[in-house]
Design brief:
With 510 residues, this protein is α/β, with parallel strands linked by helices. The protein has 22 helices and 13 strands. It has a five-stranded parallel sheet, with helices on both faces. The protein has a three-stranded mixed sheet with strand order 5-4-11, sandwiched between helices.
Length: 510
């Protein structure tokens, strides 16, 4: 009963109560902060990562002209808009250390939020304001609107088609509807800045995609080309799209997190963020019109991001995929449970050492052996409570970008692919939609119907799942891949996930 009382007595987070809180709060005058960055995709990761780095700079008395304006385009973003407005755009970030220590801080670097569908004029005003010098993105892997197989921009997407049509209407002097996509908004703003003689902003992707800046350049330029080839040429020549590698495990906020923050710290926060202590950001120094002093806040500002991103995508991200499907099938709920199981740890390290590491380039300043051990320690943190369900979600946006390139690289070099094939087989078994006890699995994937239909055909065609060339390219044509894949898939069906992983450890990690 005492806990309920303390939670009820917690102060609702706002600018007016900062002086009364017993946790670190912004040490700068937020009324002096002006917007220099517009960010699409204000979720947990952005608030635990980029916004935290900017807040860290401001607490050092720097870069108050690089405040962040969040911008939402999806229906669900309206909820974030409301929460941010109610809390003066403040939120609590709590780091959960492995020993159970909690490290809270109120973050103040976001100073505005625009929900573009309801405020199209204000959205465009922010994007065309000369003070806005960076537009950053965490729109997820699926937000870049491209074919997994070809990488080509999908002009048939209904929302994209709407924006292109309305741009044509406006060009002909008609009454056009406002853009509804990130592509429509960003390119429309760039077109207006070009016409007005305003310098373009940098487009900075912070998504988990290899060559994320290059990907953003291709997709935004492709949209611009469909709208106006001369505009596309200008974008290619004038707009910078730096590559970056970002890393911090940030699980979905739960009601338990909200209650914990209210009870432990006296803060009533409708949408706090919890994260692990580790954070990393390697960023290419390629900006159109300046940038914050990111290096002073711990960002690795480097000339070439690729070695860092390959390290992270192929070691951390693929390891998450390697543990989530068999772990879920074996009855685990959280990542730390899987990584406290010695068999699964041997399996993950076997994949990292045997198949991932040979595909990597040297990474300046990083000891890969220490990095891999650190990953296991991070995954094993019981206080982060990272669910396997979260890691299993949106697999068709993840496996093709993170794991398939590793398999193809190893095939081309004559190296083993057995563990990579086992990871794909675990996804194929998971995508059947029932666990080993026959209970239904809630598959969350933008291509849910497609991947589950392929998985359902596996009883009659063991390669049905990997014949999808959009996801796997020509892997189904390579016996070096299909042989261990079919062996693993049969084992998942006949002997279960745990025995399959034990067998993989014995056969492939010694």
């Amino acid at each position: 009963m005492q806990q309920d009382t303390s939670a009820q007595d917690a102060m609702t987070l706002s600018q007016s109560v900062l002086g009364e809180l017993d946790i670190p709060v912004p040490g700068y005058d937020r009324s002096e902060v002006s917007v220099g960055i517009v960010h699409f995709g204000v979720g947990g990761f952005h608030r635990a990562h980029q916004a935290m780095y900017v807040d860290r700079l401001m607490n050092d008395g720097k870069d108050l002209d690089w405040g962040i304006c969040g911008m939402g385009v999806l229906p669900g973003d309206a909820a974030m808009k409301q929460v941010m407005a109610d809390q003066d755009h403040l939120y609590t970030l709590v780091l959960k250390h492995p020993d159970g220590t909690l490290e809270p801080r109120v973050i103040g670097s976001i100073v505005d939020y625009v929900f573009a569908p309801a405020e199209p004029d204000r959205a465009m005003a922010r994007l065309t304001d000369p003070a806005t010098r960076i537009v950053s993105l965490t729109i997820t892997e699926g937000g870049y609107n491209f074919s997994q197989a070809t990488g080509e921009f999908d002009a048939q997407n209904p929302a994209v088609a709407h924006d292109l049509e309305q741009a044509r209407v406006a060009a002909q002097g008609g009454e056009a509807e406002p853009p509804v996509t990130v592509f429509g908004l960003v390119v429309e703003a760039l077109a207006r800045r070009r016409t007005a003689g305003t310098r373009p902003f940098t487009v900075m992707s912070c998504d988990n995609i290899q060559g994320n800046g290059d990907m953003a350049r291709r997709q935004f330029t492709a949209y611009a080309r469909l709208r106006d080839p001369k505009l596309a040429e200008w974008v290619e020549q004038e707009v910078m799209f730096p590559n970056s590698m970002v890393d911090r495990i940030t699980p979905v906020t739960t009601d338990a997190d909200r209650l914990m923050i209210a009870e432990e710290f006296g803060v009533q926060d409708a949408w706090p963020v919890v994260a692990e202590p580790f954070a990393q950001w390697a960023l290419e120094d390629a900006f159109t019109d300046g940038r914050p002093a990111f290096k002073d806040s711990g960002v690795q500002v480097v000339p070439d991001v690729e070695p860092y991103e390959l390290m992270k995508l192929r070691l951390l991200n693929v390891s998450h995929q390697a543990l989530c499907y068999p772990g879920f099938l074996a009855g685990y709920e959280y990542a730390h449970e899987v990584c406290q199981d010695p068999t699964f740890v041997s399996y993950l390290l076997g994949y990292m050492n045997r198949e991932a590491t040979p595909t990597l380039r040297p990474v300046d300043g990083v000891d890969l052996d220490e990095y891999k051990q650190q990953l296991i320690e991070r995954f094993s943190n019981p206080h982060v409570q990272d669910t396997l369900a979260r890691l299993c979600a949106e697999s068709s946006d993840r496996i093709p970008k993170w794991l398939v390139p590793v398999i193809k690289d190893n095939l081309a070099s004559g190296r083993p692919v057995d563990l990579g094939a086992t990871i794909v087989a675990s996804w194929a078994r998971y995508a059947e939609g029932t666990d080993e006890n026959g209970a239904p699995i809630t598959v969350v994937d933008g291509r849910k119907e497609r991947v589950m239909a392929a998985a359902a055909r596996q009883s009659e065609d063991e390669l049905a799942f990997v014949r999808d060339t959009d996801l796997f390219g020509d892997l189904a044509q390579h016996e070096e891949f299909t042989r261990p894949y079919v062996e693993a898939l049969r084992s998942f069906h006949e002997r279960g996930a745990r025995v399959t992983i034990e067998d993989a450890v014995v056969r492939f990690t010694r």
